[in-house]
Design brief:
Order of helices and strands: EEEEEHEEHHEHHHEEEHHHHHEHHHEEH
Strand order of the largest sheet: 5-4-3-2-1-6-8-7
Structural class: alpha/beta
CATH architecture of the largest domain: 2-Layer Sandwich
Low-confidence stretches: none
CATH class of the largest domain: Alpha Beta
CATH superfamily of the largest domain: ATPase, nucleotide binding domain
CATH topology of the largest domain: Nucleotidyltransferase, domain 5
Distance between the termini: 8 Å
Largest sheet: 8 strands, mixed
Helix content: 25-40%
Mean pLDDT: 96
Shape: globular
Number of strands: 14
Bound molecules: adenosine-5'-diphosphate, acetylphosphate, magnesium ion
Radius of gyration: 21 Å
Length: about 400
């Protein structure tokens, strides 16, 4: 059975085509700059040359059409007919309190996702466009949605409630939901397997450090607490998102410089984080390069990013009364030798001891970077959200 996995963003759409018999990836790619005149489709078919196409892709339906066209293309394609695709699985960022598992898409499910547009304005409307684009382009194909929030539905009320009037939770469902759940779930399971231990016996802190950044405390195999909140803005400093700040800052700025709600949202989501402090980039590779060349703003951005991560890791060790395993994952977590070193070198209080050689070894494999004497196992586990989505889709459709 072949499953197409889609992660639709507001102006991009990433895809992977899986053969579920052996879980191999037949092709993957992305459409960027949807809605612009020069949109870019990058397609990587397994065992063939990567292709890039520039054309006008004004909406998600056109983007999906282009993806299907290239998947069945004579030269660059990997299947002979679209009928070979038996199911589509989508990433959906916000599932609110309605979903603690992946589900098959129905009218009711779509209604629920729509109700959550307000809570994830950058993500959920784009996912819905992806689902509708598949309905138009591949009618009758079963679709499954896999939620970032689902894994965190096990959090206790003491973790998910905010200390504000309870009516706000009852009436508007204002609470912590948490995100990147598929990733935290996947890497914690892989970590236990890597160590040959029972997941249920471990206290794990997982750090998903990509464009979005979140940490999760995992106890008895379940999410116990996580740094993102009602929206993916809370918690750690990110590429362009501020993370935690005094909530009083928001009304204060709105009064002082006469900003509208949408402008404040945009400032905190798109113009803050590494971008704001470095003054020119949200890309960790550039931050590190500039820092090494003596750029003081890049250094400050790096220091703040690292410091905030370290504070969260420490607080989750306290939250679980211990930490057996610390996991780094996602673009920055898997690749930044410097960030991992700086964090671990200043967590010696917990008995963490990093092995510099292991940390510096470049690899895309799961690996241990702590020394033999370290009291906490420190691992780098490459995440694979797409594989989890493909597996859930296969399970529900099969
Ligand atoms: N070698 C590297 N060193 C440091 N950071 C890296 C490296 N490779 C990728 N990154 C960073 O990873 C981030 C993107 O992470 P990723 O998990 O792909 O994000 P997302 O899935 O949220 O788009 C970028 O900030 C990028 O700079
Ligand atoms: C939820 C979230 O922050 O997702 P991403 O990291 O893909 O932006
Ligand atoms: Mg990601």
């Amino acid at each position: 059975m072949k499953v197409l996995v889609i992660n639709a963003g507001s102006s991009s759409l990433k895809y992977q085509l899986y053969n579920m018999e052996d879980e191999s990836v037949l092709a993957k790619g992305r459409v960027e700059r949807i809605g612009f005149e020069s949109s870019i489709l990058t397609h990587e078919p397994e065992g063939k040359q990567e292709v890039t196409e520039v054309s006008e892709i004004l909406d998600h339906t056109t983007a999906i059409k282009k993806v299907v066209q290239i998947l069945v293309h004579q030269e660059h394609g990997i299947i002979t007919s679209v009928d070979e695709i038996e199911a589509v699985g989508h990433r959906v960022v916000h599932g609110g309190e309605s979903f603690s598992n992946s589900v098959i898409v129905t009218q009711e499910v779509k209604q629920e996702i729509k109700k959550l547009f307000d809570l994830a304005p950058l993500h959920n409307p784009a996912h819905m466009m992806g689902i509708q684009a598949v309905e138009i382009t591949m009618p009758n194909i079963p679709q499954v949605v896999v939620f970032d929030t689902a894994f965190h539905q096990t959090m206790p009320a003491s973790s998910y409630l905010y200390p504000i009037p309870k009516a706000l939770y009852k009436k508007y469902k204002i609470r912590r939901y948490g995100f990147h759940g598929t990733s935290h779930d996947y890497v914690s399971q892989r970590a236990a397997e890597f160590l040959g231990k029972n997941l249920e016996d471990l206290k794990i802190v997982t750090c998903h450090i990509g464009n979005g950044v979140s940490c999760t405390a995992i106890k008895e195999g379940k999410s116990f607490d996580t740094s993102m909140g009602m929206t993916p803005l809370e918690g750690l400093m990110m590429g362009t998102r501020s993370g935690d700040l005094d909530p009083a800052v928001v009304p204060y700025i709105m009064g002082k410089v006469d900003l509208r709600i949408s402008e404040v949202n945009s400032m905190l989501n798109k113009h803050s984080g590494l971008m704001a402090i470095s003054g020119h980039t949200s890309d960790m590779r550039e931050i590190e390069e500039d820092m090494n060349e003596g750029d003081a703003n890049a250094k400050l951005a790096f220091d703040m990013y690292e410091y905030r991560l370290r504070k969260y890791i420490g607080s989750y060790a306290a939250a679980m009364d211990g930490m057996d395993v610390l996991v780094f994952t996602a673009g920055v977590g898997e690749n930044s030798v410097t960030l991992r070193k700086r964090i671990c070198e200043q967590l010696t209080f917990f008995g963490i001891e990093i092995d510099d050689n292991m940390n510096e070894t470049r690899s895309s494999e799961e690996r241990r970077i702590s020394s033999k004497h370290s009291k906490v196992e420190v691992l780098v586990i490459p995440t694979n959200e797409e594989l989890v989505i493909a597996r859930d889709t296969y399970k529900l459709i099969k």
